[in-house]
Specification:
The complex is a heterotetramer, with two copies of chain A and two copies of chain C. Chain A is an alpha/beta fold. Chain A is built from five helices and 13 strands. By secondary structure, chain C is an alpha/beta fold. In chain C, 21% of the residues lie in helices and 27% in strands. Chain C is built from six helices and eleven strands. Chain C starts with 8 loop residues before the first helix and ends in a 15-residue tail after the last strand. The chains are: A alpha/beta, C alpha/beta. The interface between A and C is large, with 51 and 55 residues.
Chain lengths: 219, 219, 231, 231
Amino acid sequence: MALDKIGIAKRIAQEVKDGMYINLGIGIPTLVANYIPEHINVELQSENGLLGMGPFPTEEEVDADLINAGKQTVTYLPGASIFSSAESFGMIRGKHVNLTILGAMEVSENGDIANWKIPGKMVKGMGGAMDLVASAENIIVAMQHRSRDGASKLLKECTLPITGLRCVKKIVTDLAVLEVLPEGGFRLLERAPGISVEEIKAATEGKLVVDGDIPEIQI
Amino acid sequence: MALDKIGIAKRIAQEVKDGMYINLGIGIPTLVANYIPEHINVELQSENGLLGMGPFPTEEEVDADLINAGKQTVTYLPGASIFSSAESFGMIRGKHVNLTILGAMEVSENGDIANWKIPGKMVKGMGGAMDLVASAENIIVAMQHRSRDGASKLLKECTLPITGLRCVKKIVTDLAVLEVLPEGGFRLLERAPGISVEEIKAATEGKLVVDGDIPEIQI
Amino acid sequence: MINKVVQNADEAIRDIQDGAVLMLGGFGLCGIPENSIAALLKKGTKGLTCISNNAGVDDFGIGLLLQTRQVKKMISSYVGENAEFERQLLSGELEVELIPQGTLAERIRAGGAGIPAFFTPAGVGTEVAEGKETREFNGKVYLMELGLRADFSLVKAWKGDTAGNLIYKGTARNFNPMMAAAGKITIAEVEELVPAGELDPNMIHTPGIYVQRIFQGSNYEKRIEQRTVRG
Amino acid sequence: MINKVVQNADEAIRDIQDGAVLMLGGFGLCGIPENSIAALLKKGTKGLTCISNNAGVDDFGIGLLLQTRQVKKMISSYVGENAEFERQLLSGELEVELIPQGTLAERIRAGGAGIPAFFTPAGVGTEVAEGKETREFNGKVYLMELGLRADFSLVKAWKGDTAGNLIYKGTARNFNPMMAAAGKITIAEVEELVPAGELDPNMIHTPGIYVQRIFQGSNYEKRIEQRTVRG
């Protein structure tokens, strides 16, 4: 059975290690925060200038001057700090943020990512995505394996305008967990419960590398 | 009679206009602060990270964590702010500081300045001098017109290692007030009380431009 | 101490001419100069180039100036919450230049700090790189980006003093500090204006040297785009 | 919240090896990491490259490490208050690289912020420009300068919390914030260490993300180089 959004978020939460500073993109990545085990201490960075981001506020706590990069009201936790956008992207560009989790429309087998623009549709802008993907040491992409019409989104080459080159390290989809190999190709690490390697192969246009037995995702 | 250091400082203080942000170098420039008229409001910038610098402290006020760029204990005035060295030189480089007053060993007739290094002597470093002279809109140099052995320090070309090119706008020496002309040359504006144009000419190796009557410095 | 206080937004923006290049602080609707935008609306200044991370919403923030067609060009990283914006863009009435958010922040920071150009990895291999110089450092490719300045910067702070020093609150800080430094004339509106000497010099976010005019704003609406609460 | 507290300077600097590149905060003797310097002296680590605006005085600050010949190279803007320094320099025991103060500050800031290179007007036409690329922007010539990083940054703050957030006092701030960001490992010593949550997030000078180890220092001498008082 393919993972739902929460399943993808739960699986990505397993990649989070103690002591990490993490930037979470909008959508599924935001959900990841809910599934990080209690004993794992991390700090969330929001690129509009907040480190140590907490959960959404209660009604009483709502503060128009405290939002995340998705423009949602948030809170901060003990040990938080607030800074300018220049400092925030200095942090990102300078590789102080250890892990970036974001969504994608397409990923290519050499790790290129497209997630900001669809030709013919209104262009909203890249926001901080190009900075994040160009800078992060470790990028995990949360995405659906195929588009709604069944086309693979894990491609030989991206067809949509690129956000960044050779930057994605790992992908968690509804069907599988995959690693992008330095020499190119998606190496299959885990498959969703009940999903066969053949199904994943059929859903992957780019080169899929399958070595030995592929375990099921445990969440 | 040639001006003494205090006379030079007093004359430079006349160049200070209401609302200016000013960086004062070590030596005579520091003295200028004492002679700015009460009704003229300025703020002094110290490049180690202080804006709104006040007078030296009383014994009770001395704070090891509050020094100026000459490493002297100082105070701050109401409206002061403190910032990092990067911010401080951003301020200087970005031309937010309106006036820089500093000493020099030599100035050339096209406005080059040498004030950081004497070949054969121990080199202490340029500190912030190269940043200041490369960035300031308006630089006034306070200096002696001649060296101790009588050689002119207002030259056709600097003989000492350069601190910055074509940057000096005005010079106040013990003998005269001079403007550096955009096309090159020292234009004589004022002479020290009792000092003749001929004496100044004799003390100036670079091109001296004398137009009409030259008034005496009034301090 | 140099006094920079003006009475209100109208006085502060009095000399902003048609065609001016403005920077406006804020991220979404958080930390935007509400009073100065309202005064621009009233003054009717046209042909503005607005450098701002976002373009407001239809009926608030820069969106108000779009409604009245006062904006000729937006320079932003993300402009997606605004139907009128979309209409003007598609009809060709409005120009838009999209810049990666970190590059935008750094270009403004560079402009204020006298850095004419710098190198960044953001945008390499994308359409953002078109026409730009690339260069390799330590085996990685970077783009050269230029510093940005503005005729006027309109910033919003929480507290300010008569010397122009500013303190921001929460994530309303965002682009405001860099824009304050990058404006040839910087106009700061604050929720509370205090006499010089009341703010701790150690805790100033924007030193007064960057601010030419300051006033205490009024009637802050501080609209929230995504009010999200937990159960 | 990620806890970064170590017991003392000895523990903090335990893995600084011979030949390491260090950044040390401070301007003159103001804001220097006194405890970490003392621990380095005790540990006897040799062949150090020290990036610091100044080199201390004969018997304090980095001057102590010069006395014991632990320093191979100094990268500074001004090194003039130190007789032993002069002796080692003239005898060729010590290498020195002089960098204009603003360029040094900006190179460190760039290093921490992932900017590999930028352009500055400082040093154009001087010996500092030798071997460096120059380039014209808007009719003015600039030098290209590179970002700087260090194996370890040793910084000193006034207050810090267990998450590594730092607040500096007065002009003891100087180079410390940029160095904190430019160290691969940053060691912060503070006069007062408090639990996370006690410092106002709006008033943090160095966000904890830049700091890997923090400890409460002791016996701060805070020597004054030029005690100057008014009558």
